[in-house]
Sequence to fold (95 residues):
Amino acid sequence: MRDKQDQAVALSYDEGSESAPKVVAKGRGFLAEQIKKLAEEHGVPIHRDGDLVELLSQIDIDREVPPELYSAVAEILSWIYKANGEIRKEVFHDN
Fold:
């Protein structure tokens, strides 16, 4: 059995777009670590969900997430928007 912690999948989504998020990078081992490192360096939020990564890793690069995974990916996007809002509050001292 594969170690789900040893994997990474990067999604790209244009807010306001009618298209589904796309898989733009994926990998295991060293490549997974590089994907995570680049995300951190560029301030891209990282959400850890081994089961979802396992499913998303089966999607080809530059392919949209299938409808069967929309609800799971929507939860992640919601988490990211919330995290971004909290960061803005901390940086700009908004209430």
